[in-house]
Amino acid sequence: MTILLTDAWCWLCISMAIFLLTAFIMGRQSRYFYTMDVVPRQFSIMDLELPSCQKEMVNLIKGIYAMPPANRQLTLRALRGQLWVDFLFMPAAYGSIFLVCMKVASKMNPAGMVLFHILAWLQLLCWLCDIIENIYLLQKIGPNISESTKMVHRAYQALEMIKWGFSLLGIVCGLSALLFFWVTGNFDVSSLHYLLIIVGEIVIFMVLQKLLFRAPIPAT
Hints:
Elements: H1 2-6, H2 8-29, E1 34-37, E2 39-42, H3 45-49, H4 54-65, H5 69-105, H6 110-140, H7 150-183, H8 191-211
C-alpha cells in the first residue's frame, strides 16, 4: 500500500488518460444508437442501465431490431462495441476514484481515514456491479428478448443503485476533500504538476470533442 500511495499521482494521471480515451470512444459509438418508437429515435446507454420497468428495456431492444437492416446493424455493432469498451473504462474510472480517496485518506484524522478507506475499497464493489450489468445487457441484446421477472428487475435496479450511489459518493467526497487540501496547502507543491497534467488531459478531451463533434447519425 505504501508503494501505491507513493506513486498514486502518477497512476491517477494514467487512469484519467484511459478514462478520457474510452469515454471519447464510447461517445462516438453512442451517435449510432437508434431504436424504432413509432418513428426512429435516438437513445442513450442510460436508457438500458436505468429502465423504469421491465417492458422499457424489452421495447427498446425490440425497437432496434425493427429498424431497417443497415441501421439495425450500425446500432447493434455500436451498442455491443460500447459495452465491450466499457470493460476498459471501468478500471480507469473506479481506479481513479480509488486513488483519489486513498490520497485523501492519507491526510485525514483516524475517523476520516477509515471513512475514505471504505469509500476507496467500495469502488471494487461498484466495478463488480458494472461487470455484472454489462454481462447482463450483452445477454439481453437479441431479437428474442424476453421480459425479466420482477425479482430480476429489482435485483438489476439494486445493482445500479449500488454502482451509481457509491461511485458518485466517492467522486463528490474525494474531489471536495482533495480541493480543500490543495487550497489549504496540505499537499506538496510538486503534486500540482500532476494536477496540471490531468487538467491538460481534460482540455485535450474537450477540444477533440469540439473539433470532431458531429450531429447524430440520422436513422432512415
